[in-house]
Amino acid sequence: MHRPTADAEWWRTAVIYQVYPRSFGDADGDGIGDLPGITERLDHLARLGVDAVWLSPFYRSPQKDAGYDVADYRDVDPLFGTLADADALIARAHELGLRVVVDLVPNHTSDQHVWFRQALADGPGSAARARYMFREGGGERGEEPPNNWQSVFGGSAWTRVSERPDAPGSSWERDGQWYLHLFDSSQPDLNWDSPEVHDEFRSILRFWLDRGVDGFRVDVAHGLVKAPGLPDWAGHVRMVEGTDVEEGLSDGDVIAPDASDDAVTGRSPMFDQDGVHEIYREWRAVLDEYDGERMLVAEAWVEPLERLALYVRPDEMHQAFNFDFLVTRWDAAALRASIAGSYAANDAVGAPTSWVLSNHDVVRHASRLGLAETGKGPNGIGAEDTQPDAELGLRRARAASLLMLGLAGSAYVYQGEELGLPEHTTLDDSLRQDPAWWRTGHAEKGRDGCRVPLPWRSDAPGLGFSPTGRTWLPQPESWSELAPDVQEQQEDSTLRLYRRALALRAEHRLGAGAMELLPAGEDVVAVRNTARAAVVVIANLGAEPVALPAGHEVLVASGPLDGDTLPTDTAVWLRERA
Ligand code: GLC
Hints:
Blueprint: E1 15-19, H1 35-40, H2 42-48, E2 52-55, E3 59-60, E4 72-76, H3 83-95, E5 99-104, H4 114-122, E6 134-135, E7 158-160, E8 178-180, H5 195-210, E9 215-218, H6 261-264, H7 276-288, E10 295-298, H8 305-309, E11 319-320, H9 323-327, H10 332-347, E12 354-356, H11 365-368, H12 390-405, E13 410-414, H13 435-439, H14 484-489, H15 494-507, E14 514-517, E15 524-530, E16 534-540, E17 546-547, E18 552-557, E19 565-566, E20 570-576
Parallel strand pairs: 1-2, 1-13, 2-5, 5-9, 9-10, 10-11, 12-13
Antiparallel strand pairs: 3-4, 6-8, 7-8, 14-15, 15-16, 16-20, 17-19, 18-20
């Protein structure tokens, strides 16, 4: 299924831990995580055994979309610290042998970015407007948006501006052009036809490469180029699978299927246009000027896997998040198909396959896998929704994680999944901050439930997240039992399971192994990963226990084994006896 990768660059086999800065650790006591709070806690990650950290955005931002609305790409938001704090974080991580990947947000800026403010001030036809996607409206007086595109967060993807903000009697009357925003209205899309935009982002890459970062996670990598003429589209975009409120359509992805051919191939006029690849070739050339194996990883919600593989051709990015694996339902045949399909598509272009189960945009997998319907899951869960089965979810999550960490390639771990943290599923609606919550008229709860501040100490106020006990979102009560100080003491804790798995993965070089799908029962995923020695990874998704193959030694299991049988929703790594 997949050949071994010898003497590979670090990113081909790395386990990369996602830090969500506002919720990892707070040093200054304001209840919002910050860079010094991360630096203080990097030991936890070194001990966990990961190879790198990826930091979600910490740049200067009005925080309308938790920092994915960047006002200054070359500065740290005061909420998170200073540039000196970023330097200190990078230095400390490197001392501990951890690489550092930062987030790059090239599809849009904040509306508070100096470029956008200038675009508003300079008016139609100006050079400043040409950096964004301004268009005249339709209708008799330009009162209709330029096309029918919807924002990923809900509502129209267009907002109208006023061209005469200071005229007496008409101040802020919206009588002007419209600008495109695939996300919130505070996140205007950049115009990637503009050479200035290209120059600026190459320069931003250099700014951070010069500061020593090892790579970039590229936000909405499939969105930068839009179809010429911005044609209307009958489909509906969503971050996360959900139900279209108006039309009752069921959406399978960011890109929902509709009757048109483009949608069937997973393409809408706003996403996955061929032109994006030129941009990544330019960036690759910049990274290649630097030593130290710097890397780019694409956040591209693109289907099918063959289209995604185009982003990781030899002269483009190094990795792309494997969301196909993340959205696969808890079903052995579906998982086998996703694993085999992922290797086939990536091997064809010589790229590593990445594996991911959770991030800051989806319901945590310890909760997702406890829902009646597994798969991509809803966009958030609220108190009045059917609650996930916590025990089932955790059991499956541990099995899913052990399966994932046994696969060759690179794996992503989202902060807190090493503690088995569930989603906050009963968050008070008044506390919600995700723009999707507002923009969908509360039809979607949004992503706050997977972004709650981490627990560190069970007996401390705010579970040790902050010296004052403050936390910008409340932590679920169940989390005090899940704090690392408690899990340290428990041999069967999720934290110790992750540590053991990561140590074994490193010892056996599983990231670089050859992969073979083994014949197994219908409800079983079984693979052999051969690097230093052959390690067999088996996950039982069926209702009945299955017999373990004879002649094997158990290296690690996601739950208790029953003699020589593997219980339901349990995974195991076995070493073949010579
Ligand atoms: C990406 C981010 C998400 C953000 C969006 C807009 O999908 O992961 O958190 O809201 O882009 O930048």
